[in-house]
Specification:
binds guanosine-5'-triphosphate; nucleotide-binding; 2 domains; binds magnesium ion; six-stranded mixed β-sheet
Length: about 260
């Protein structure tokens, strides 16, 4: 399992439709790379997508996902999406970020965490998942926090969110949407928390038999490509030799 966090950061965004996954991805990458749309009544993100950018001197790749937890997709469709997510975040994500809106009650998110543990194993939740709170701006505007900081508001008024955070071994981050200096600082703090997560997980990215299988398949394919290329080179060399042989054939035969 690679310990490559120094240079690469692989993140997977999870959460219900409209929870702000794509918007968070855009904020993390510092540019509008994922489609994020409030106008549509259907889910904006229909399939897993990966985007990359240099952030704070690191190559950050973000896999955005559709809503697996509350969607109308068939189990087969969800399975296909999960396979795609695994392939896109190979050799394994450093962190799963579960997007949870602060301005609404968390009704199905606990089930979402159980589903995550079922698909990727309990370690995925305990060691590699962070709750990414979204819509902090709306919470502030609503006045529900009553002048408290978001953290104080969660601790004093939101038992539902505290439970989620506890399931993720107390890991959470409050996302500030947008692209100014404040957001950049916020993203840097998020990446520091991800680094801490990786340290606590023994310096490794998340990996499970499913991820390992994809990794093995990718390696196998790379080997095949190298072999194919070598084969082509040998063939070309052989052809060049033949051409040379024909050309240099005493001026008798000039087939090419
Ligand atoms: N005010 C505010 N709006 C947000 C925030 N996060 C997302 N939005 C907006 O809410 C809408 C939905 O956000 P998305 O990021 O597309 O949500 P999603 O989780 O990707 O949704 P699906 O792709 O449908 O699963 C978009 O118009 C976003 O701009 C936030 O923190 N604050
Ligand atoms: Mg989306």
């Amino acid at each position: 399992m690679p310990n490559d966090f120094k240079f690469f950061v692989r993140l997977v965004l999870l959460g219900l439709s409209g929870s702000g996954k794509s918007a968070a991805g855009n904020t993390i990458l510092g540019q509008a790379m994922f489609e994020s749309n409030s106008e549509s009544f259907t889910a904006a993100t229909q399939k897993c997508e990966k985007k990359k950018a240099m952030v704070d001197g690191k190559r950050v790749s973000v896999v955005d996902t559709p809503d697996w937890f509350n969607s109308e997709q068939t189990p087969d469709e969800v399975r296909a999406q999960i396979s795609s997510c695994i392939a896109l975040s190979s050799p394994g994500p450093h962190a799963f970020l579960l997007c949870v809106p602060l301005d609404q009650p968390a009704k199905t998110e606990l089930q979402a965490l159980s589903a995550l543990a079922k698909v990727f194993g309990p370690e995925a939740v305990q060691k590699h998942t962070m709750v990414l709170f979204t819509y902090a701006d709306r919470l502030r505007e609503s006045g529900k926090a009553g002048g408290k900081s978001v953290e104080e508001y969660i601790a004093s008024q939101r038992g539902d969110l505290v439970k989620l955070v506890e399931k993720c071994t107390d890991r959470f981050h409050v996302m500030e949407k947008g692209q100014g200096w404040r957001q950049k600082k916020n993203v840097a703090e998020l990446l520091e928390k991800v680094e801490q997560t990786v340290k606590e997980a023994g310096g490794q990215c998340y990996s499970s038999p499913a991820f390992q299988e994809v990794e093995d398949r990718v390696r196998q394919r790379q080997l095949e490509i190298v072999r194919e290329k070598k084969g082509i080179k040998q063939e070309t060399a052989l052809q060049a030799g033949l051409v040379g042989a024909w050309r240099g054939g005493g001026g008798k035969k000039h087939y090419l």
